[in-house]
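input
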Amino acid sequence: MPAPAPTARLPIELAPHVREGRYFAVAGEPERALNALCGGREVCPPPYSINRASFPFWIIEVIAEGSGELELGGACHSLRPGSWFTYGPHIPHRVEAGAVEGLTKFFVAVRSPEQPSLWREAGLEAGTAGRVHGETRILRTCAELLEEGVRDSPETSALTAHLYNVLVWRLGRAAREGRRQATIPPLARQTMEIIDREFATIPSLSALAVRVGVTPEHLCRSFRGAFGESPYQVLLQRKLHHAANLLRDGPWQVAEVARASGFEDPYHFSRIFKKFHGVAPSRLTIR
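output
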């Protein structure tokens, strides 16, 4: 299915095989020599694939859902929820969606004669990749940036520039933390991989502990020591991000989304969703 027409006039060429996209483009930050700021959210089913030797913009991409493969500057990376990467002029990159589920991603692009000074200040380098485990803040910032970017108000330019700054600084911190967590204990790594694959069918911390064969207390100590959050927090975040994406992509009934995200009681789901996202699921939409 061809991608729908963008909701903004973008200064960049969009990749093929995007099933659904929502985009924004606003003025950049002249004081940082950024003369364009644009981005969006794309649903990329297989056979989505890009393979470029270079790109005229400086790009940040963050995976919201699904899986895929990234080759960046000759190094290969698996893409999962929370994966992020950066590239720009003269940086070869190849991105492919997973053969079964595809991937959904946010991207933000700026045009600049050289790597943005903001990136250097935040410690974010072009041609790098990482993954944020328990990625609530990063994905929320991406979603807020898109929601503000598509608005038509006097404050839009200033607010999108601010949110872009927040995203860059948070990813710079994530890059530093990722280097410190290069060696993750096998139990914590296995648990995160199970959450990524099976979050919709795991109802509780106890069920997750049974799945990996340890007590809930032991699992919490190992997981929190590696990622700074409890496994149940990350499990719940994954469920609620998935639910938000289903509601945005629509059309779904709230009860259907609750079941598809692993909640048996739609009323309980609605209460947790509103507390987490700040809006009732019945009101969440990008259309």
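quick obs: The chain has two domains: 20-180, 186-283.
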